[in-house]
Amino acid sequence: MGTEDGHREWARHWRYPELPGLDLLRAHYVRHTFPRHAHDGYVIAAVTGGIEEVGLPGHVVRAGPGSVVLINPEVPHTARAGAPEGWAYATLYPSSGLIAEVAAEIGLLRGTPGFTADIVADPQASRTITEVHRAAEAGNALAADTLLRGVVARMLTRHAGPLPTRTVRGSGGAEAAAARAVLEERLADPPSLEQLAAELGTSPFALLRAFRDRYGMPPHTWLTDARVRRARRLLDAGTPPAEAAVAVGFTDQPHLNRHFTRIVGVPPGAYRRERALLDGRGARTYKTHSAGPA
Length: 294
Fold this sequence. Notes:
This protein is α+β, with helices and mostly antiparallel strands. The chain is built from 10 helices and 12 strands. Residues 177-274 form the HTH araC/xylS-type domain.
């Protein structure tokens, strides 16, 4: 078990049942690096110590204490330490449904909202995000829900607009979308790039370029991310990690462990155990096991 002192890595990724549509991650990472990946929902992260470097399409941001990182759904990104001491942060992962609900309550936008900034200096919002975590860990549903909706409304009011969409000119966009659909359908037994291109009537290089332009990562990287996302849903439903690994196409549980921990930030066993804490109490933390290369 990690501690919250010194340079040891620790992390807790969990859900508080009284806050539906939200995942919570509080962590301190030093050597751990997140490979390129994306989320179904949004990211609202308050850096509380050190420096986090976030690699976004076309640029890198460095976030320190008092700043909040904002990432829209399906935006590919990486994360790593930007200082020798690593970084500590408290992160909210609200679903698209939760964001749309708050946006409708405050009468902000029609349609799906999206953040227009990727990093903001907002110490008050940063403190509120950490308070959401503390209230949830204490089992204080009223405070946690109040603080959550308040900080989401603040971010939407100050830093939101229509959710942007990634487009690819010409036929490449359609081919990339078709390739993604094939990979989703055949997640456990995907074709090679050459086979996939032949099925879609294009060349491997043209498909690779179109896929990168549309989704911000090559097909094999997207596939690993998609497998981890599917594994998360299986673990949420109570599937043992070994069964989830086979179901999504990983060769074995260690293979799942390695990629899951790199992308999610905690091992699948710790992730599944937190889902079993139905009362939302017990502020346990788990030491990560993937500080080294994959």
